[in-house]
Every structure is written in structure tokens, then in C-alpha cells.
Amino acid sequence: MRLKIESATECLIGKGLWGFSRAANLAVFQIGNRQTLPSQKGGTRVVGEFALHVDCAWNITREDRVVMARRDLYYPAGHEDPRQSIPEEFDWERDPNRLDELSRALFQDGAREYRVKRIGVGAAGSLSMELSDGYRLEVLPDNSSSYEFWRLFKHGDRERHFVVTNRGIET
């Protein structure tokens, strides 16, 4: 499994990680040259050459600090004090949340990118991308069932998605 992941992700080395969005709690990272494609909702959208969809635990760190992570989604925007309670009416799907706020600041709405310098592969499909400026993206499978942890694909190539699950690799 490790060799297959290394082979599938080596195309990312040297490319810029510049975008983050989400579909519910699925993280979507845009990597590589920007492309303008038709949007499913009409109009166009700008995407990377590659997309990394992550449906398990993940974080972006810099040195010894977590800069943003999956669970930031479940806190209101501006929430920083762990002793502060979360308002009962807060709905992460509807209301401004901490993850969206942090991602806009980190990627400056797509204007800032981080070069992928090195990729490490760990147990059970975990992935670590060393990025420029001391940042690191870590993908950490966190479920023992047989569902999808993450997938990598090249935009425009509907046939070949590289999918990592608890059962192994699916393509």
C-alpha cells in the first residue's frame, strides 16, 4: 500500500497547495496549476490541476502548532478560548465557523500557495506533505470501518481516482 501511495502522490512534489474548500465536512484541497472549469451550478470555477479530498482527520501545522484542522469546523468563527462554551444555536453548516475563517486567512482566498516539498506515507494510508514556509498537511485515517479516507485525482480525468480506504487502494 505504501509504495502505491508514494507512486500516486509523487506528481504533487513541486506543485503549489493553494486552495481549500469543503462539501459539508469533506475537506477539498486544490493543488497545482489553476484551471477554469464549468461549474455544476452554472458559470465557472477555478480549481487546481489536482484535488485531494479528505474524509478523515487532518490538520495543517507549522512548527509545533496546529494552524487549522478538521474539528475547527465545529466551532463558531472567532472562537479561540476552549473554556468558552459554544452557543446552542450554532450550526456549523449554516453559521460562520472557525475552519472557514482560518482557511481564508491561511490561503488568502487562493492568493497564497505552499509548495509541496516532500511526501511521507505512514501506516493505514496516512499521508504527510511537507510544505514550504514550515507548514505540513497531515492526513490521519481515523475509522476502522471500510469507508473512504481520502482520494486524489486530476481534474478532467473522470476515470482515474486514487482512493485510500481501510480495505486498501481503489482506483
Helix content bin:
10-25%
Structural class: mainly beta
Report Rg: 16 Å
- Helices and strands, in N-to-C order? HEEEEEEEHEEEEEE
Keywords:
171 residues; mainly beta; 13 strands; globular
What do you see in this structure?
This protein is mainly beta and about 170 residues long. It has one domain (about 1-170). Helix content is about 10%, strand content about 40%. It contains 2 helices and 13 strands; from the N terminus they run αβββββββαββββββ. It has helices spanning about 1-10, 100-105, and strands at about 15-25, 25-30, 35-40, 45, 50-55, 55-60, 65-70, 115-120, 125-130, 135-140, 150-155, 160-165, 170. Strands 7-6-10-9-8-1-2-5-11-12-13 form an 11-stranded antiparallel beta sheet, covered by helices on one side. The longest helix is centred in the middle third of the chain and has 10 residues, at about 100-105. The protein is globular. The model has no long low-confidence stretch (mean pLDDT about 95).
Quick summary of this structure?
The chain has 171 residues and is mostly beta strands.
Layout of strands and helices, then pairs:
Layout: H1 2-9, E1 16-23, E2 26-31, E3 35-38, E4 44-47, E5 50-54, E6 57-62, E7 65-69, H2 98-107, E8 114-121, E9 127-131, E10 135-140, E11 148-154, E12 161-165, E13 168-170
Antiparallel strand pairs: 1-2, 1-8, 2-5, 3-4, 5-11, 6-7, 6-10, 8-9, 9-10, 11-12, 12-13
